[in-house]
Amino acid sequence: MDALVNKRIKQVLKGDKDAFAEIVDLYKHKLFQVCFRMLGNRHEAEDIAQEAFVRAFINIHTFDQKRKFSTWLYRIATNLCIDRIRKKKPDYYLDAEVAGTEGLNMYSQIATAEELPEEELMKLELQDRIQYEIRRLPDKYRSAIVLKYMEELSLQEISEILELPLGTVKTRIHRGREALRKQLSKQSNFL
Amino acid sequence: MNACPERIVHYMHEYLDGEISREHELELKFHLQSCVDCQKHMHELSDVVAFIKGAAHVKAPTGFKKSVMERLPKEKSHAGVSR
After folding, report:
1. How many distinct structural domains can be found in chain B?
2. B51 to chain A: nearest residue by CA?
3. Per the domain annotation, does B77 fall within a domain?
4. Which residue from A91, A125, A160, B44 lies 20 to 30 Å from A106 (Cα-Cα)?
């Protein structure tokens, strides 16, 4: 995979845009997924994941081919997500598009701060519930948890993506798990 | 909550990260055998991991690649490098 990617990168550097389209195909699901889990909204995730690819294209000459391309790409995407989260107002999602969300209903779009009453929580489908709990995590724990459990990356890779020391990544994952435990155990019959 | 050493919770996380030493693992196991509260804590953490791993893979929407390609700058890839 890395050899193929490096070949495509060389072609892009020579001005071959079609080679970049192949790179997009290789990583689009991963990148979209991380943005979706970070931002909790498909519409926004699509915008940010596309922007990440555009930035990667523009800055491809700065990529060191001795390193892993996916790590570099994830770093661009997570930085964009974090910037977006910081800028956004809490009511940003209220008019968000729900159509075509493939099974994700309005609950997936609820702003992080909003806490649903227990009887509403009980009605959520598992996937909506997972997304809801992820959204309620503080941002810095969320990025580490998403990269570890949804992208299934190693602690070392997460440390490179988030540009944080390994020890900090571990602490964030530990605290993220504890935060989720508290969120979930508040409900009598969940954990 | 109780008088359990703080390091026990730390060992639980080391265990979940797959980075626990033999020594810490033995101490953790020994402690869990005698402490119902920590057993519960450990179970809850394992359940959290199972819960979060239950997330379905999400796919990029159709037309994603096309939109990216349309958003790329029109000039050659290394134009705008030294702005």
Report:
1. 1
2. A130
3. no
4. B44
Which domains, from first to last, does chain A contain?
1-88 (1.10.1740.10)
User: pLDDT tens, A14-70?
Assistant: 999 999 999 999 999 999 999 999 999 899 999 999 999 999 999 999 999 999 999
Q: How far apart are CA B72 and CA A117, in angstroms?
A: 44
C-beta atoms of B72 and A51 within 8 A: no
ipTM strictly over 0.90?
Answer: no
3-class DSSP state of B33: helix
Task: Say yes or no for a CB contact (<8 Å) between B44 and A61.
Answer: no
A:B CB pairs within 8 Å: 119
Residues 6+ apart with CB under 8 A from A107: A116, A120, A124, A128, A131, A132
Nearest CA in chain A to B45: A181
Residue of A nearest to B57 (CA): A33
Asked if the Cβ–Cβ distance from B13 to A177 is below 8 Å, we say: yes
Q: Of A11, A28, A41, A166, which to mutate for an interface test with B (greatest number of B Cβ within 10 Å)?
A: A28
Residue A169: both structure tokens together = 């990544």
**Total-model pTM:** 0.85
Which of A50, A100, A145 lies nearest to residue B52, judging by beta carbons? Answer: A145
Query: Cα(first)–Cα(last) distance of chain B, in Å?
Result: 58
Could you report the per-residue pLDDT of A63-109, keeping only the tens digit for each? 999 999 999 999 999 999 999 998 875 544 444 444 444 444 444 44
